Amino acid sequence: MNTLILALFKSGDKLKLSSVCHLLNGKRTASVLTFGFFQDSLSFFGLFPTMTIEFLEKSCLQLSSKGLLTRESDRFVITEKGLTFFYDKEACLDSKFDGVTHSRTAQVFFELLLFATQVVSNASYKESNYIPIDSNNFHHYQVKRWYAKNKVSSSFVVDFYEEWERLVLTLPEEKRSGLVAMLSGFTQVGQTFDQVFYQKEQYRNKLENYLAKISLQHSLIKEVAQIDKEYPLFKSLYDILLETAGNHSASETYRLSKEGNAIDAIKSKRKLKESTVVDHIIEGLILDDEPDYSLYLPADSKRYFEQYLQKNSDFQKWRFREVVANKEHSFLSFRTYQIMKEKERRSHAN
After folding, report:
1. Rounded to whole angstroms, how far apart are CA atoms 37 and 55?
2. I want to staple 63 with a disulfide (CB 3.0 to 4.6 A). Which of 69, 107, 158, 289 is the partner?
3. pLDDT at residue 326, rounded to an integer
4. DSSP assignment of 131-191, as one string?
């Protein structure tokens, strides 16, 4: 846990615990996403849905007592000793987390995939009298829909197992046998994650065990979502999940804005407040790999912010009311410029 907390402070900025806690909780607002983006911590978004400020403060105070963090009023900042400790241990912190994209869906997709495997295996042996490993009725409905859609293919079963084989081979060797041991099928009941991994020394700590589980789930869903042509059956199951997972309002607003619809038009069409539309667009800009900044950053605003940058190059810490004294430039153009500069900075750093 020490390494994970230090990772959240690695920028060296003085951070409010409330902001860090909201990030770990997965509070999906434009302000929290912007905070996570500038801190390069969006991978940890939603990692601990039940995290409390009290627990986080206690953990930070323990790190402070070791000289790894320093408290300044209501904020904490990492020390040189803390940075050294973090970079020494950074390799231990799994890089497979992608919370901002998959925190709401990774666990459910994993459960659906395991259940679908049991269904396919038993169906291939024409066995219908078995106890489902998943007791969630809605999961039954989702897998039933998926199975009915795909079983018509004569190569369905073979294709399904070939996708499993490809997916398992993407994992580190030490995790492959563990994942296979979790699969259930005809006359076979898989083990739970804890049964498979908790016996291994590196996962006996409850936190390490939890992080390993989340890491595995994120690894699988990222592989399927990003290389969907290799996993058409798994991706079709994922698509069924996405139909009901979370709130797609922000992505719909952003899609309309990219098509050239003005904010007023989107407000009217989607019956949203202007501030909500702006927040949705900001979220889209953060998550979009190739955003069109010109849609939200007029040329005159860009010139103004470029001039301001000459006076204050620390654009991440700009405050809108300090930068824009009048109303000639919108908050959306201001935030768009910041996001653009940060993505440019990372591109040059790589």
Report:
1. 23
2. 69
3. 82
4. --S---HHHHHHHHHHHHHHTTSTTHHHHHHHHHHHHHTTS-HHHHHHHHHT--BTTB-PP
